[in-house]
Amino acid sequence: MKKGLLLVRFYNMDIKLPNKIKKEFIYTCMGFGMNEPDIDSIKLVEGCSKIILESAQPKAIYKIFPIFFKYDEDKIYILNEKNILSGKSILKHLEGCSQCVLMAITLGQQIDKIIRKAQLMDMAKAIALDACASSLIEDLCDQVNEQITEELMGKGQRLTTRFSPGYGDLPLYTQKIFSNLLDMERKIGLTKSSEYLLLPRKSITAIIGIKNLDENLYNKDGKIYYIENEENSCDICLRKEQCEFRKNGGHCLNKQNLYK
Amino acid sequence: MKNIFDTDNYIILDGAMGTMLQKSGLELGERPEILAITYPEKITAVHRMYVESGANLIYANTFGANALKLSGFNYTVEEVITAGIKAAKEACKGSNAIVALDIGPLGELLEPTGTLSFESAYKLFKEMIVAGKNAGADVIVFETMTDLYEVKAGVLAAKENSDLPIMVSMTFESNHRTFAGCTVEAMAITLEGLGVDALGINCSLGPIEILPIAKTLCENTKLPVFVKPNAGLPNLNTGQYDINPKQFAQQMLQYHDIGISMLGGCCGTSPEYIREIVSNFSPLKTRALERKEKYLPKLRACSPTTVVNVDHVTIVGETINPMGRKFIKQAYLNDDMDTILACGVEQIENGAEILDVNAGLPGVNEKEMLYKVVKLLQSVVDAPILLDSQNPDALEAALRIYNGKPMINSTNADRDLMSKIFPLAKKYGAAIVGLTLDEEGIPETAEKRFELAKRIVETGISFGVSKEDLIIDCLTLATSVQQKEASETPKAIKLIKEQLGVKILLGVSNISFGLPKREIINRNFLMLAMNAGLDMPIMNPKDEGMKEAIYSFNVLAGRDEGAKLYIEKFAENKNKKTTNIQNQNIDNNKIDIFHAIRRGLKNETKIATESLLEEMDEMTVINQKLIPALDVLGSLFENGDIFLPQLIQGAQAAQSGFDVVNRRLADKDTEAVNRGTIVLATVKGDIHDIGKNIVKTILQNYGYKIIDLGRDVAIEDVIQAVKKYEAKLVGLSALMTTTLKSMEDTIQAIHDEELDCKILVGGAVLTEEYAKSIKADYYAKDAKRSADIAKEVFKN
Known about the structure:
The complex is a heterodimer. Chain A is built from eight helices and nine strands. Chain A has helices at about 25-30, 40-55, 90-95, 110-120, 125-155, 175-180, 185-190, 245, and strands at about 10-15, 60-70, 75-80, 80-85, 100-105, 155-165, 190, 200, 205-210. In chain A, strands 1, 2, 3, 4, 5, 6 and 9 form a seven-stranded antiparallel beta sheet that branches. Chain A has a two-stranded antiparallel sheet with strand order 7-8. The longest helix of chain A is centred in the middle third of the chain and has 31 residues, at about 125-155. Chain A is globular, with a radius of gyration of 19 Å. The N and C termini of chain A lie far apart (about 55 Å). An eight-stranded parallel beta sheet of chain B has the order 1-8-7-6-5-4-3-2. Chain B has an eight-stranded parallel β-barrel with strand order 11-12-13-14-15-16-17-18, surrounded by six helices. In chain B, strands 20-19-21-22-23 form a five-stranded parallel beta sheet, sandwiched between helices. Chain B has 33 helices and 23 strands. The termini of chain B are far apart.
């Protein structure tokens, strides 16, 4: 047996909940697009944000692994040949990286139950709760991402954007790698179904590529800086034709610019 | 073998296996259980270190050896478990240590959060248990469990397929709940009821953090308790656990006082930790017996998240019962589960703490229906359930899949019935109500009812049911018909309570049958009954008068400490009253139903519909008012003047109008409005159902009858439903590219069967072209479009 373990760093964290959930993403999820929501919907969202923030039990975990490219097979191994990333899109995304972060985050099972119950009693409320939870998990994912970035930046490393199973041609069964390598079921209560969907529902897993600074251009403005391997990730997105963000000329990775 | 825990010596459990294997160079991504086949000597060596450190009970390396986790690894469950047990037995040779078949979570979440069914979980556990028993395991341990439902499947599989003692430990987070929200108390009473032999806590936290959780566990069970904490908490910078063996053993000493019987370590611990524990604990005798003697048994029922302790007058909601309730009866006959579930949620919101569920009526298979209702109901309510049936088959089907500790309503003093129902209560750990009647009917006098109660209690105990789980119902008779006999009920309550010391349940409202102003009689009879000792009135939780009586009684009888619940209730009620007054101020004639629906105002729509019904017949209100209002709403949505939430709110307002009309039709014994039957399903493999449910809300509010098959629906279930309900339209939803194939297969199957129905598809990744290519008849880009399609199909 090879020893690969020492390269693995392991973090298990309880995340801080924000005081508010970002509104813009919520209304987009609810189908308002760029339009001004009506007063009843604003009130509804306020109430639902509160409920989601009160019931969310966010947990996250991430670890850093070495990666190995097998260009002849269009594959990347994480840690060892048992953990295979396949497909052209992830190959392109991680180009030039020597390590990656695997991260997993969940809002917990209570949220699913609340949304399930609302669907029975009040569908409009269910839509708002669902949108608030989706927005919150995105916010928290950003928060974890930023934390990782800050830490690694200090060590002279830079990161790609997040890439999740199901993006481009990275198959959903890649979730298996997260289960195996992060022990996410045990550590944060995040599981996958037999069809590789994440459960609880409001959960995200993602891969972030890590490059050493000397392998690429320096970060000029001193701010968090992403490698631009994937400058227009919409190209690989299967839902770009129906995307509410794109309809409004925006991008899901850059939500805050949408409404200016 | 059963009495291995019957000792006042501490039983020492082992420490981590995973941590030790990692130290020996195990690669991540490999199933550690398989090492028992590939490197058995490595596994045996780790076990032996624990035996040599003084562990008496060794967990075999079988934690994840279930068919789900082993899939793709070319070894069977039996092979891996046999090798795992063998490796552990090898290590125990020459010592007194015994071996446990170690079983961890299956790795997939059970319904309703996940997709794994209770029955599949049972089968997966059974496979492990049979293999473990055959390989010679001495004990079965379930550990690191977070879902009580999964544990129940495992415990039933263990009890029904082996005679081995069963230990269960669950993993709690710092909020003292598991990931699934299960509380320690719910774990204790559910699993003790199921006949588990020892209960414990392991993993996630260190000895200091687990101590208060273990204390709660010790206070809530008579069973031996065990703990296996981690070696402290992981250090955020290094990922290493932060306490050493000496500190660990020192911190563990505090567990002596709370009365545990067994201890060991989980993640981060090693043989050194176990050696330190042995040296601290071997001179001590456990205080478990002392704890057991202090334990006060009490009547409780629970779901995983909510325990109801019947130490005050506890409201049991009676509404889910087709007897005398036309809308529930109709819902059962139409397989309309949403109405039943909403009725459950509503009762809880109105103050019910326990829900009575009755699914018995002619034309409905009670066994299937009770099973189905309980399964669905527990996915949306936290309150425990009182299973209302005397049909042993129906009861067993529901008891098996109930997640928590339920109650049964009921047996009576008939010996034959008792011999069928008490064993069920015993096996599934349910509390049970006994009615004071037998084959000769209801006795007239209190004394005779007491005699029957005595017979019930004695028989129940002889079947192994704990006395605290026995509840007596001394029956309410109509005072207008049998005035004398009716007045015996409070006397009987008093007698039974004083002499037998069991809790009392009573359906109250029958007392006033045939009298005017029934609520006056009901409320005063309730007061008499509570004063005599009634604990659990079965009633309509919307009856404010009865609730006032109950809340005030709980204060006056000293069962609502500091009048906390009373204040909470009536401070809240004050607000409710003001809204009612506001509503009453609405001038009924001035409400425009179009405006009310446009604004999504349910109450106004209801009032407007009622006043319209004074001038028009039901169908006219629907065709000239409600449907046109929905059409207006639809075109506003299409034009982008309103958005999805407003469309839905408007549709829900219209629904309250439809409800008024339908109730009126039901009163006239006329069928509810049905403009066409539509089957809806999220296809097999897909669990996204909010889109489908939005479509359902809209279609329902247009007066279509919706057969909602839910999510992850098998092809044959769609076919069957279309045939059974003769649906002319099927709506299929899929949200993932991976499940479009499943949608295509479902459509193909419908075509193959040559069913006379149109197929409508929708979902985020679908397009008009794609829908055509998989031979769907229609593509709906949103819920509004699905309503247009329905109109076209049904030509209405």
